[in-house]
Amino acid sequence: MNLTVFGIGYVGLVQAAVLAEVGHQVVCVDIDVKKVERLNQGLIPIFEPGLENLVKENHAAGRIKFTTDAAAAVKHGEIQMIAVGTPPGEDGSADLKYVLAVAEAIGRERDAPK
Fold it and tell me: How far apart are CA 83 and CA 38, in angstroms?
């Protein structure tokens, strides 16, 4: 299955790597150009036991890709997953502006259900 994961932090990267490991074609999207470049070079920005090998092996096998191109990533995925930050607001509640921005991007770029 073709999957898209928005956000390549602790949650998104681990989720994407595991999904690729079980055979899915995963495109990961992030707005951080340098992070995407480093991942495409095999440099993993976080430590999680076993993650580096999962990412490198699945990237080499073509099952996981990293990009900043949200439009292409949306078109790739039959399923879109949002794993972006929800920093606390001034009142302690979750700030959902990044989640909503990704949802709007998905809505703009999505042609029709696959």
Answer: 19
Question: CB–CB of 5/101 below 8 Å?
Answer: no
Distance CA 79, CA 81 (A): 7
Arch. (CATH architecture) of 2-109: 3-Layer(aba) Sandwich (3.40)
Q: What is the pLDDT of residues 9-56, one digit of tens each?
A: 999 999 999 999 999 999 999 999 999 999 999 999 999 999 999 999
pTM above 0.85, yes or no: yes
Instruction: Report the C-alpha gap between 67 and 65 in whole angstroms.
Output: 7
Q: Which residue has the tokens 């949802």?
A: 103
Contact 80, 28 (CB under 8 A): no
% of the chain at pLDDT higher than 90: 92
Q: How far, in whole angstroms, is CA 47 from its chain's centroid? A: 17
Domain borders along the chain are 2-109
**Could you give the CA distance from residue 37 to residue 14 in angstroms, rounded to a whole number?**
18
Average pLDDT value over all residues in the chain: 94
